[in-house]
Amino acid sequence: MSRETRTRRKEIEKARREKMSELMRGYDETEFYPALNSVKRECAETGHGSKNYHDNGLGWTFTSCLDCGATLAKHGPEGQIVIPEQHGQAPYNGSEED
């Protein structure tokens, strides 16, 4: 009985997440993401602030701006470096001293 209850609960929660995503899609596309991207572009123009370093435990590490949340660099488990050029941000130079 416990497994059935858990399964039903997960189905109900999943349906709610999907409905919320559907209802917010228009707002996200027209308001939320454009506004957030604008903040990230402005932050890049003035120079990203303090950096946050995160290790996901699977070999990937991420460096992001604590002010705007932009991802500045991703380092893969085999040494690859992915530098997002989104939001008009300058490529991160790898210095953790900033």
**Rg calc:** 19 Å
Any idea how many domains?
Answer: 1
What is the strand content?
Answer: 15-25%
Q: Biggest sheet: strands, sense, closure?
A: 4 strands, antiparallel
Number of helices: 1
Sheet with most strands: strand arrangement:
1-2-3-4
Mean pLDDT: 84
Describe this structure in words.
The chain has 98 residues and is an alpha+beta fold. It has one domain. The chain is built from one helix and four strands; from the N terminus they run αββββ. It has a four-stranded antiparallel sheet with strand order 1-2-3-4, with no helix packed on it. A hairpin with a 5-residue loop joins β3 and β4. The longest helix is centred in the N-terminal third of the chain and has 45 residues. It is flat. The relative contact order is 0.13.
Furnish the topology, listing elements before pairings:
Layout: H1 2-46, E1 51-55, E2 61-65, E3 71-75, E4 81-82
Antiparallel strand pairs: 1-2, 2-3, 3-4
Brief descriptors of the model:
17% strand, four-stranded antiparallel beta sheet, alpha+beta, 98 residues
Summarize the structure.
The protein has 98 residues and is α+β, with helices and mostly antiparallel strands. It has one helix spanning 2-46; strands at 51-55, 61-65, 71-75, 81-82. The radius of gyration is 19 Å and the shape is flat.
